[in-house]
Amino acid sequence: MKKQIYRIATLFLVLITLSSCSGDDSSNETTPDESPNLTITTIPINNITQIKASSGGEISGGDNETIVSKGVVWSTNENPTLNDNSIEDTANNSSFTITITGLELLTTYYLRAYIKTTNETIYGNEISFSTLDHVVFNGLLAFATQAGIDGFIDSGVSKITYGIRIEENEPGNITNLDGLENLIFIGDDESNPQNDRNIIITNNSNLTNLSGLQNINYIDGSIGINNNPELNSIENIPQVTKLFGLGLSDLPSLSNIEPLSNLGSLGESLSIRNTGIQSLAGLQNIITIGGFLHIKENNSLINIDPLSNLSSVNDFVIISENNQLVNLDGFGNLQYVGTSFVIDYNNSLTDFCGITTLVTNNGIGGSFIISDNEYNPTQQDILDGNCSL
User: Fold this and answer.
1) Residue range 116-150, pLDDT digits in tens
2) According to DSSP H, which parts of the chain are helical?
3) How far is CA 290 from its chain centroid?
């Protein structure tokens, strides 16, 4: 009897304990997240040109605090992902628009907006679009006013057959070139180059940079930038690999020409005169010059080392009046100069050992003129090893 009472009491205690635990579980239940899932919708494409277009995304639902990044992805194949081309939007907004650049002419692209969270990447709906064909201006285009440059963008012109000249008609009139950003091609027929479709930027007193020219990828001729006293950057100079000629002169505020680093071939000439540059960094990929090399009156230029890959100049070389220049080591690989070789009026120049190979190989086709430098060796001095003070 006592055992039966004990069993009943034990069972009663167990039931009470279970009931108590059940109550605790009920009080600790979590309510499921009832907010909608995080999604993104791709914004329709607009502002389509030959090389760029705009799109973006609209984010809705979920917890925006979990978003790590957002932007758009694109490809010439369907269903682009972050493994393809992408650009990120850094603004802290749920709706965003981005301009993508560097597109190819007459090409179909597929684009999606995306959001990347701490756990996953979510893509929006896919949109396709095609870039435009060239809009052509037949002739030489001359700009004399800022208003003319600003209004040019509305024309949609991307190709000019006979070149550009930018020269203000009144002091201070032209301050920027942003209105030229749709330009891609300067010339007529890439398969039949004429070498005279030039970009000339001259006599602009307040122009400080070349923003607006960065999308030009072909020039059938030369670039000449002259007498722009406030120009301090050529960062947006056209990124071409070859030119017929390049001339930079009377640019006292310009201290850096590194944006020229894509340039590998000059069919005719390279002239750098009266600039503020301290180095020729940017010219390191030039191997041959089809015409002449002229470096003069660059009073901050210390050396010409970046010309170390230059092997031949088919016409003359003149290095003159560069008062800080101390050596010619950059000519260490120069094998041939077609006509005159002139080094004069460089007040600090004492080391000519960089032209030892050129002289030893009898690589100068014309006059050898060394005068009015700190040291003025003859060819025989150089052959005898007396190439520096």
Assistant:
1) 998 999 999 999 999 999 999 999 999 999 999 99
2) 2-27, 146-152, 356-360, 379-383
3) 26
Q: Is the pTM of this model over 0.70?
A: yes
Domains of the chain: 39-130 (2.60.40.10), 136-384 (3.80.10)
- The C-alpha atoms of residue 126 and residue 58 are separated, in whole angstroms, by 13
Eight-state DSSP code of residue 351: B
Cα separation, 22 vs 15, in Å, equals 10
CA distance 44 to 290: 49
Q: What angle do CA 279, 218, 220 make, to 5 degrees?
A: 95
Instruction: Write the DSSP string, 254-295.
Output: ----GGGTT--EEEEEEEEEEE--S--TT-TT--EESSEEEE
Q: Is 13 helix (H, G, I), strand (E, B) or coil?
A: helix
Residue 260 · residue 284 · CB < 8 Å: no
Q: What is the pLDDT of residues 246-272, one digit of tens each?
A: 999 999 999 999 999 999 999 999 999
3-state secondary structure 197-219: CCEEEECCCCCCCCCCCCCCCEE
Please say if the pLDDT value at position 8 is more than 50: no
Q: Which of 301, 305, 289, 279 is nearest to 242 (CA)?
A: 289
